[in-house]
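queue> holo job accepted (zinc ion)
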Amino acid sequence: MQQPDDGALVLFSGGQDSTTCLAWALAHYRRVETVGFAYGQRHAVELDCRAPVREGLAAIADWGTRLGADHDIDIAGSLGALGETALTSDTAIAMTEEGLPNTFVPGRNLLFLTYAAALAYRRGLRRIVGGMCETDFSGYPDCRDDTIKAMQLALNLGMSRRFVLETPLMWLDKAATWQLAHGLGGDTLVSLIVERTHTCYLGDRAHRHEWGYGCGTCPACELRASGWQRWRAKVVSRERS
Ligand code: ZN
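queue> job finished
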């Protein structure tokens, strides 16, 4: 049950998914704060998108009155010390022996959720919102619904709280994520996501496509582009019928 009086803390990276989650939280809760993590990502492009995206969202409906503080947490030293992945060093993107892409940063989402819960505890926020998704994702085990449910239990036991971990994108594919954004904030939100969010693993802001900026060929760009095309095709066929 959603209780609008609950406050929410959104894990907000500046990418498409977390921006859609932030819009979702702003549509549901009266007090919404954001947290971003610097974890030694190769490209700071995504983090640079956070402030302009927040500004854009604050101009939609009454969201500006709901959007509260932004928090930055720097865990680059600790996570970086644990080893290299294709997201944190200049390594080519490839599959590992376990069948996982080497963009997987072990423990990353578990750490994010633990830090977020500690922050939510101090800020008196009950809902913790993240863009984890089982449907379109690269099989990251820390994005699975079971993992999130287990984390919710562990955090609530360990902090003696009743946090609710919300993952509005868990069962959506990328086409449905575009559709959700459109339902929440119409064309204004869709164009904000296209123009200001960043998803590309290579940090490319030089090439503009109809779905936004990116290299167009890395796995993150491919997901974003194919989701966009499937969503647009559905919209066009609905308009025709
Ligand atoms: Zn790319």
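queue> The domain at 3-198 is CATH 3.40.50.620 (Rossmann fold).
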